[in-house]
Amino acid sequence: MSPPDPAGDCYPPRPDDGTADRFGHLFNLIGDAVVEIELVETTPVVRAVNPAFEEVFGYSETQVLGESLNEYIIPDHHETEADTFDERTAAGRQNHAIVRRETATGVREFLYRGVPYEGADGRRFGFAIYSDITEQRTYERHIQVIHRILRHNLRNELSVILSAAQLLEAESDREQIEQRAAQISHHAHELASLGKEAQTLERVLTEDRALEPVDAVSMCTEAAEHLRERLDGTVTVDGAESLQVEAIPELSTAIEALIENGIVHNDDDPTVRVSARYEPKRAVIEIADDGPGIPASERRPVFERGDITQLQHGTGLGLWLARCTVEICDGQLEYERTENGWTVVRMVLRPG
Where do the PAS domain residues begin and end (predicted)? Predict the structure, then answer.
């Protein structure tokens, strides 16, 4: 792809001092997506894009050249924000903001810088520079969640342990001593389990690994067998004999965490049904249980992208481990409460 021609319609004339060549190299080689627009009345019309724009946004130069940039990259409900940026560009003012923009593969987050300039003939132009910060922002949000849940659950578990220990010191009845000791042991194991989940989640978020084909049915079967040995409840695995998906190894831990949630949060002889199947262009793992469902205060931040500042904590890190793992695998985590009272958590993944 050739860079914008400084002597062409899109730029005012410039002296032939090598500046054009240096600008062309910068335009073509910079890793950030750059688009040059002309404001035609109030519409930002694309005049040139660099190779990084084509790669990041997934639109070729021939697709967008001469078209309204906003028609391609502005998500629904963000039109007012885009109009404000265009007005500032028209007034010769720079823009700088974190924004959400539509790409050919979905909405992503960017650091946006807008640099306006005016041609010799008075026409108004601008450069929009987009740095993709989606992974960074996702990581920051997930770390916030981990810290909030760890603080909350550590405080709760330690409070119970300390209280039981104090009562234990004052007890003389052997039966009461055994009950207090069992209580301390139980909550100490809860803390140990929380620590292991946190370690796994940290590994998911910080280690950069390529996705590999794995058999999700084998993972489901192994998780079910492991939990049958540790917990009271019925766990069945049905569906395809094999389900090849693109994933990281921690998918097995995430599956086990979801099955465990279905057992431990149901006090009435819990049953968990795990199923795996292929659907058009996707692979699906479902974990269904006959328990009371996930409270809305815990469900919304995980499944509906709710405000994590309103997060309440009762299920540990299991749901967040599942969500983060599925997102790393380019998949999606879904929730459903069926009419017959079953809770379904669905992992939607790429077939391997």
Answer: 49-92
